[in-house]
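[scheduler] slot 2 assigned
[scheduler] job type: sequence-to-structure, two independent chains
[scheduler] chain ordering preserved from manifest
[runner] begin chain α
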Amino acid sequence: MTEYFNIDSAPTSRLRRPRLSRWLFKGGLGSLILRGTLTLRLPDGAIRRFGQGAPEIAITIRDWRTLRRIAFNPDLAIGEAWMSGTLTVEHGDIYGFLDLCLSNTATAPDYGLRRVQQRLRRLVRPLLMHNPIGKAQKNVAHHYDLSDDLYELFLDPDRQYSCAYYATPEDSLEDAQARKMHHIAAKLRLAPGQKLLDIGSGWGGLGLSLARKADVDVTGVTLSIEQQKFAAARAAREGLSARARFVLRDYREEAGRYDRIVSVGMFEHVGAGHYDEYFAKVAALLKEDGVAMIHTIGSVGQPSAPHPWIRKYIFPGGYIPSLSEIAPAIEKSGLVICDIEVLRLHYAETLKAWRKRFMARRDQVAAIYDERFCRMWEFYLAACEAGFRHNGLVVFQLLLAHRADAVPLTRDYLATAETALERPQSEKEPANARRKSARQAKKPAYSVAAE
């Protein structure tokens, strides 16, 4: 794990306090919090209130140095102050505080210092996102090779650590994750005997589901040692090792040709400087009549830079791309964009479910790690949920192929395919009938759409 930030709580001189307070209150919070109420207790006990109405959140900042750091670099300093305990929430919780702030900043113009910070981050972005093969594995290990017991506490039984697909916010996490896997399988138009590559296969939940329900041959590649061990062991336990293999390998070192390629939650770790390389490799691995589906977090805004707190503590090397950064690399690869679906609030609901489960078992997490780790993960889950609700974060599902007729002309086929995948295996047609259907599925896609 990254070494935690250690805050020096020595107070600044009394001359600095009123100047900092006036600048922060008049130029910052005073004009920022317009909806909802934020009550702030200062290190000397003074109380300031900003905004009006619900929701009402109260926080305490316990030393002047923390206040100054938050004023000049909130993206990094707020998370570090929460981790160290120099920022505490007295009324509400950390999610409520972040939700209040981000719901107001979503419509507020950037002030001068923040614009300068964003420009500087964009300048050093190529260095932050340089992700060669060796470094990529270290970045993955930082997050994904944590204790298996940690992820067992808040993920669904298939360990889907990516955006679920909600029909309504009332759906259970298990139902939404199963629906996500069915949705992906339907888009890929899987047929028995096809060879499928899963880039960034995680704990193997998606690959095993596709091997089991669609009778395809799956190869999953991951850079996480712990995930690969778990996935391979599960495949053996479930008698699927012959049809689902999980290997420790960088996707750039993969060879062969595949009928289908899927990648869920991995593209965020590629790095903007490697997008051309990534899609060129996908194109090289995909057969001429094949289909690839890339599922990635994205931004509806302009290209920016990695979030400093997330990069330092949670996902080193990670970056959320804009569609304008992804599309040119796809064009250069020669692949055709057959479909783009934008999942808007689905990840916010997923993170909400994870956060609630994490908090319900927080004591068990503290027993595995410590209190500081718990506060770090509370902040991570809360900040990401608020970001997906207010900061223009979405999920892109990109359907790619070499040929424009690789998938039907309309999305009508998806509902039929999803329904078939949700039926119990005993109700489905026999394997020989499925293989006959598979041969028929190889006809040009426009004829399927026209039927």
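[runner] end chain α
[runner] begin chain β
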Amino acid sequence: MPNPFSAVDAEASEPPFEQLRTQLISAVRDGTVVAGDKLPTVRALATELGLAANTVAKAYRSLEADGVIETRGRSGSFVSAHGDATQRRLQEAARDYAELARELRVDAGEALDRVRAALGIH
């Protein structure tokens, strides 16, 4: 079982639970972990990283709410087949934007120019 979590920086401005969230999301994006991979238990990860179990549990709850992981009762927590919530939201926004452009009869080139401008790409 790959462990996508590394040390947590107690001095960082980002709270420990958020650091854990970010680490797992990055691991999903770069393919370090894939759908179905089992994650360490809350207690095991807390012990390994020197964190309170509640901190790890909070990260896991947040990741589950975002659809990145799923908990299967006593079987544990696993990377969800639904993947990264950020990527899912971005895809939904792109689909909605494309639909709006078609409704407004804006050609694809102009729609892409608008996106590039909004992203600051010239």
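[runner] end chain β
[qc] chain β: The longest strand covers residues 69-71.
[scheduler] slot 2 released
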